[in-house]
Write a structure and sequence with these properties.
single chain; alpha+beta; 54% helix; 15% strand; two-stranded antiparallel sheet; 4 strands
């Protein structure tokens, strides 16, 4: 059995697979897929999701975009969805699909979700770093109880 994880919550497990050639209107015969071919295809999809997410992350990794995501609302003032991929779509941030490549929506969503999680983690780290800097004590070798209270309040 082969398991490939695209994101933390989207696990795909396959023990056997079959490829059906043709179209939905005129399906062909189901042919078994070897384990090696299944691993190659899963690897291709994983690499594709990483590539799409990396490209989207590079375009969205800007202070103005992080601020927009941190605000929790879109340009029209509507609250952003909790699901990361939906929030990015609401903001109009979508991965650039290479010319000539057809990418199913499920693969696109995986890339968007991976990007959203990275951006939200960046927001969290930015908030923690800002709080630490804002409450840096006069003597960093000895934080007082008040220093710790102030830091927690900022966090």
């Amino acid at each position: 059995m082969t398991t490939v994880t695209l994101t933390a919550t989207a696990t795909c497990t396959a023990g056997a697979a079959r490829v059906v050639s043709g179209t939905p209107e005129k399906p062909g015969l189901a042919q078994p897929v070897t384990r090696r071919l299944l691993v190659e295809r899963a690897g291709f999809l994983t690499a594709l999701v990483q590539r799409l997410a990396g490209g989207l992350l590079a375009t969205a990794w800007a202070e103005q975009h992080l601020d927009q995501l941190a605000s929790g609302v879109d340009a029209e003032g509507r609250r952003l969805p909790a699901k990361g991929w939906m929030a990015l779509r609401r903001l109009g941030w979508t991965p650039l699909i290479p010319a000539g490549l057809r990418v199913p929506d499920r693969v696109r969503r995986a890339a968007e979700e991976e990007t959203a999680r990275a951006l939200r983690l960046a927001l969290h780290r930015r908030a923690v770093t800002t709080a630490i800097i804002a409450t840096w004590p006069a003597d960093p070798r000895r934080r007082t109880t008040d220093d710790w209270v102030l830091l927690r309040r900022h966090l």
